[in-house]
Each structure stands twice: as structure tokens, then as C-alpha cells.
User: Which sequence fits this backbone?
């Protein structure tokens, strides 16, 4: 998607057509059959194949978008910022129930605010949600270039997997300093890196990718259940069925702890303590020389 000058110009690159128009003084009518170049540009036919922006219900306002996100739209004109905010609010509302329509709203926001990193991130995430991994990867790379953030690297790695390029996904994941990632992002990255190893048949290394400090049954966080599930699945692939069952049970208990279930917290932790904690490794032994949660199928 070509970046556009947000909120200014004609929408064809950010230039105002009035800069190209004649001043009206000392200009004689064109006596020939052809039009001046500036008139040809003005008379360019409408592209009827270009998708129209999806409608937004009147009751949806810019205030339906979180304030922290609205602040990032301050560089736009007030009118444009309001429209973009309403499209982004629709993305938030529709993301789970209608991913395709949410993606259309994200694209509409990008048409108006393509230079804002958060908007490009939104397009990338919604493209991932509808399975357009090529677009998702391109948009998330653009988001990282604009923002300098590595928070969406796990999604970028999974996009490479979706495109049938797990080796490139591993390379992308290894470029990141994981010590500078938040625990949640670090966990998501470990899960997709493990999935890429499984794609390549590197099952032992897939298990090693998951052996990070967050794989700790003594303390449970909201990111623990997906990590424990991934570890259980990889143990199953390796034929370690009993170990897999124990980690799967642990994952279920962790889910209950963060799902409002009535089981007491100390019971959850007593179950966790029964699980043998693996020795953690910072990186897999093998090293090749050559950014919605990641996909559930890993």
C-alpha cells in the first residue's frame, strides 16, 4: 500500500491540484483540440473498481476509540482525524465477529492516514486475520520501520510461515533482542519460532524454543496458558505423551485462573507445583548461518 500524505491534497500523492492550476491572469483559452496537462489530470476518469469505504453507523463517533490511539491522529486535520478514528473504532468492534469487514475499515483508515504507524499496524493485523499474509507482512514491516517497535515481530514470523517460508521466519525472529521485549511478546515469539521449527521437522529444537523463563509453572500470568499448551503439543509430537498430558492439564488450570472461574488460586498453584520445571536454555543449540494472537495451529 502506497503511503499517502494524510489529510491533505487530492488523494493522489498529497499535492493540491490548485498548485497546478493557472492563475487566471494573462491566459488565453486553448484554441486547440487538446486540453492543458492540468485539465487532463482534473478530468481523470473515476476508478469505479476501487473499493469504496465501508459505511460507519451514525452512532459510532471518534470517542468510541481509546484516547491513547486518538492522540496518535493529532497530525491529521480535525475532520480527517474524526473519520479515521471512526473507522478504527469499527475495526475494534468488528475484529472478532466480522474480520473481513474489520479489514475493510482498516484499509479505509489507511487511505486517509497511511503515514501513521498505528494505522499501518492495524491494516497488518486485520490482513493477518483474513489470511492475507503477504499484505500483513508488508504492513507490519512498514509499521516497524515507522515506529521502531518490535512488538509485532511474532505476527511477522507467523506470516512468513503462512507464506511457506519458515526459514525466513526463523531468521526474522533471531534478529530481535528478546531481552528488550515484553514478557507477552517474548512468549508469542517463542511459540511461533517453535511452530516454524515444527514446520521444518526440527522437533527437538521446537521444544527448546519454548524453554524460556516464562515457562514457569510456579507463577501463572495471562500469557502462560498459550505457552503451556504449545509446550504440551510439542511434547506430544516428540512422543512424550505423559509429560504432554501434565502440561496440558497445567495449561487448562492456568486458563481457569484467568477466566473468572471459582476455583481458588492456591489450588491452581498446587497443581502447578506438581509439574517438573525444565531447564531453560537461552537459544537452541543449532544456529543456521543464513509483529490477534499467532495462529492457533502453530
Assistant:
Amino acid at each position: 500500500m502506497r503511503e499517502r500524505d494524510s489529510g491533505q491534497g487530492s488523494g493522489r500523492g498529497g499535492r493540491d491540484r490548485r498548485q497546478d492550476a493557472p492563475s487566471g491572469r494573462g491566459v488565453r483559452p486553448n484554441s486547440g483540440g487538446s486540453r492543458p496537462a492540468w485539465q487532463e489530470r482534473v478530468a481523470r476518469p473515476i476508478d469505479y473498481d476501487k473499493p469504496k469505504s465501508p459505511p460507519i453507523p451514525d452512532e459510532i463517533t471518534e470517542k468510541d476509540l481509546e484516547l491513547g490511539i486518538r492522540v496518535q491522529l493529532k497530525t491529521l486535520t480535525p475532520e480527517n482525524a474524526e473519520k479515521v478514528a471512526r473507522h478504527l473504532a469499527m475495526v475494534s468492534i468488528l475484529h472478532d465477529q466480522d474480520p473481513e469487514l474489520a479489514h475493510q475499515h482498516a484499509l479505509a483508515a489507511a487511505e486517509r492516514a497511511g503515514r501513521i504507524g498505528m494505522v499501518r499496524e492495524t491494516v497488518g493485523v486485520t490482513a493477518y486475520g483474513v489470511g492475507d499474509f503477504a499484505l500483513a507482512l508488508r504492513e507490519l514491516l512498514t509499521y516497524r520501520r515507522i515506529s521502531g517497535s518490535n512488538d509485532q515481530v511474532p505476527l511477522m514470523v507467523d506470516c512468513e510461515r503462512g507464506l511457506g517460508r519458515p526459514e525466513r521466519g526463523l531468521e526474522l525472529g533471531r534478529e530481535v533482542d528478546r531481552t528488550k521485549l515484553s514478557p507477552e511478546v517474548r512468549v508469542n515469539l517463542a511459540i511461533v519460532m517453535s511452530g516454524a521449527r515444527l514446520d521444518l521437522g526440527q522437533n527437538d529444537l521446537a521444544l527448546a524454543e519454548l524453554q524460556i523463563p516464562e515457562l514457569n509453572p510456579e507463577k501463572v500470568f495471562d500469557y502462560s496458558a498459550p505457552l503451556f499448551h504449545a509446550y504440551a503439543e510439542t511434547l506430544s509430537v516428540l512422543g512424550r505423551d505423559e509429560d504432554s498430558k501434565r502440561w496440558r492439564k497445567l495449561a487448562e488450570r492456568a486458563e481457569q485462573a484467568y477466566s473468572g472461574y471459582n476455583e481458588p488460586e492456591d489450588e491452581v498453584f498446587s497443581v502447578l507445583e506438581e509439574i517438573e520445571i525444565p531447564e531453560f536454555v537461552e537459544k537452541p543449540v543449532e544456529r543456521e548461518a543464513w509483529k490477534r494472537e499467532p495462529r492457533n495451529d502453530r
Summary: Residues 5 and 191 are 37 Å apart (CA to CA).
